[in-house]
Amino acid sequence: MTRDVVQRGLYYEELELDARYLHRPGRTLTEADNVLFSTLTMNGQPLHLDAAWSAEQPFGQRLVNSMMTLAVLVGSSVDQLTQGTIVANLGFTDVRFPHPLFHGDTLYAETVVTAKRLSASRPGQGVVTLEHTGRNQDDVVVASATRSVLFWCREAAP
């Protein structure tokens, strides 16, 4: 053995503007995932839990909880981008769900770094804007969100 390699995200300096990071593998969302997430988060919405009622609604079936879709979309980026290199999640804007995700659909996530700047108030850290996009197995966009994240710079990281 010549060296140890620890899996981590990318430091501020390693993030490339306008690069598209593809987060693989995708995640197939099941009925069990959706019911568990919805009940754990106290979301009793029949569109997520009641198959008979949902069958009579415009989509004709239950929808995957959009907050679960967002959580998996962002979570899919962690190993590649922020694992051990994030200081804090600063916020989200422009969260959209243009197409529903259904039980059995697979969510594929990708992220584009759209802006980055060193923090004026926190030396050794930088603010990065990430645009997350989620697509189903048919390449249809099912979710998007803009996220601001505070990253460590390599030399300042603990």
What is the strand and helix layout of this fold?
Elements: E1 20-28, H1 31-40, H2 46-49, H3 51-55, H4 66-82, E2 86-96, E3 106-118, E4 125-135, E5 141-152
Antiparallel strand pairs: 1-3, 2-5, 3-4, 4-5
Characterise the protein shown here.
With 158 residues, the chain is of the alpha+beta class. It has one domain: Roll (Thiol Ester Dehydrase, Chain A). The chain is built from 4 helices and 5 strands; from the N terminus they run βααααββββ. Strand 3 and strand 4 form a beta hairpin. The chain is elongated. The protein starts with 19 loop residues before the first strand and ends in a 6-residue tail after the last strand.
Task: For this entry, give a set of tags.
158 residues; alpha+beta; 4 helices; 5 strands; MaoC-like_dom
Mean pLDDT rating: 97
Order of helices and strands: EHHHHEEEE
* CATH-defined architecture: Roll
The general outline is elongated
Beta-sheet strand percentage? 35-45%
Walk across the major sheet and give the strand order.
1-3-4-5-2
Helix content: 10-25%
> How many individual domains?
1
Query: End-to-end span in angstroms?
Result: 26 Å
In DSSP terms, counting alpha (H) and pi (I) runs of 4 or more, how many helices? 4
CATH topology: Thiol Ester Dehydrase, Chain A
Count of extended strands? 5
* Low-confidence region ranges: none
The CATH homologous superfamily is named Hotdog Thioesterase
Rg from Cα? 18 Å
Oligomer: single chain
CATH class equals Alpha Beta
Structural class by SSE content: alpha+beta
